[in-house]
Amino acid sequence: MIKWLLMTSLSGSIASLCLILFKTKLAAKCGGRWYYYICLSALLLFIVPLGIQVPALFPHSLMPDTSTVSFAGNTTTAIGTKAMEPPVPSSEGVLNDNLNIPVIAPEAWVLGIWVSGFVIMLCFNFFNYFRFKRKALQGTRIDIVKNLNVLASPNVHSPMLIGFVKPQIVFPVTNMSTEDYQLALKHELIHHKQKDAWLKLFAVIVNCLHWFNPVSYLALANVSEACEYAVDEALSQKMHPMEKKLYSEMILHFASQASPALNSSLAQPKKQLYRRFKLIMNPSKGRGQALAGIVTAVMIAAVALFSSSVVFAKAPQPITEYSGGIKTYYNVNDTLEGNVQATLGKSQMGVLATDLYIDDTGLKLDYFNRTEPYYKVGILWKDKDDSSVAGMTTKTIIVQDRTVTVAFTDKAEAYKEDSVIKKMISNQIAFELKYSNNRYQYDHAAFIDEVIQRGVYVIYEILTPKEFTFNLSKTKSDDVIGYKQLTTYDKKNKITNIFNNSMKLPRSVIDENTDGTQGIQLGKAFVMNSGETLALDVKETSDISPSISLSVIDEAAGNLVYWNPAARSGTRSIFTPGESNVNRSFKIVASGEEEDTVKVEIFTYKSGEEEIKPPSANFLPVLLH
Q: Does the predicted model carry a pTM greater than 0.90?
């Protein structure tokens, strides 16, 4: 929300400043009507978050190296691979004495201030308008023109159109000639025909939305001035020079103090009057103005969008082992040949990959690549002589002068030409060829080169977000636990709403006493009945604390019944209690890798078949990640 506000404010400001700085030349070139249209179009940039893909201002070399970040609560094996499925200990512990008070994030404070300013500005403008309208309409009706009442009021200083649904034209109580009256009346009728009252209302609302931006006030004033240009052009384009002179004199006669922004009035400051008179006296250029107006609008919009896109361009996250990179497991305690044999399934220690979620660029979703999931892909390597490969559909992909043989099973064959899958394979091979481990000195490029030459890259399953399922397992207490990537298809038929807010979590303390019970409680305690599943949705984390610890604790006994020590952003963890834990009261305790604000949603819902029937076969460890 804040990014939308700042980005639209910047792009709208750039466009409006261009229109204001070159006002005289643009209005003369494009004509009053087209200049008015361009000014109104510029207001759209204040509300529509458009952008252009441009390089970031800062190169990758200035980005932090996320590969060196430690993960709280995440077990690391002796061979340096990060376990993906969290352990489920069951032990007693004591909760920290933390108050269950949600911490309001700085973003929430900023949004609160912005909303308050918007409401105050909106009320201020409408209060002034309706107060002025009530006084202005305290007059005598002197005419009816095209179903509009024409009033004479002592409370106005120039002719104006007032009202939205039932507008009325109000004249000041003053002496004027019949010619001036007719010209002023035609002027206000054109305002009515153009729906200028509604367009100015739109401009006022945009100004209220961006009340903190001084340029929005200038843009509002400029729209009001451009509105008069458009009316002047419509009224004077068929006039003779002498008639234009009389029309200008009529405007000058009524020139006085400004009126509220929501009204269409002839009153204008001196400099604006000068520009209006100059445009009125200039002959119309016909169709050339329309073309000039369109070209000008496109150019100004392009400059504004490009400028704001450059400022807000996000530097691409460097691809690391924990930020998009897919890497084949290598056992540093074995030889290169031993690893090749294991990877290709020719030794007792096999390698299997599961739960590989990728984004639309083919990068793996992970701690530092927190984007929308595009596919869930199952991949592994097999020896080219493996009999199971013979029945698969194969193709070759060239990556950095290497010919990679890719095989698709029946479940994945439909995706053999899919562009995202091609990107995933290319990204993985390119990453593996340049991968190095500072802790364990081995040649990963030589290893993957050997695997490519002797093996086949097998894709055995591809699922879309609608088909994502949970990775499930059972605890010793017969509780069912699981996790999956969050999608728009996930259930939210809530039974109990436990927590849905941003919370500043304390830092996890990693020592021999760490058991998952430390942290701050989220929401109140709750009871889970038979047939209910607990959903713990991690909706947003940061690079400071990319994962958090989430624990489900038996409130009465203080026992830890489920612990996910490294819940990532964009994932859902679930807990379905077994018979021994049904109808018991639980509480949720959380902490972060570092002290930072995260957004979490926790609730219970009716269990489905997928939550209560975990697969009977045990999963092999995730060795390709």
A: no
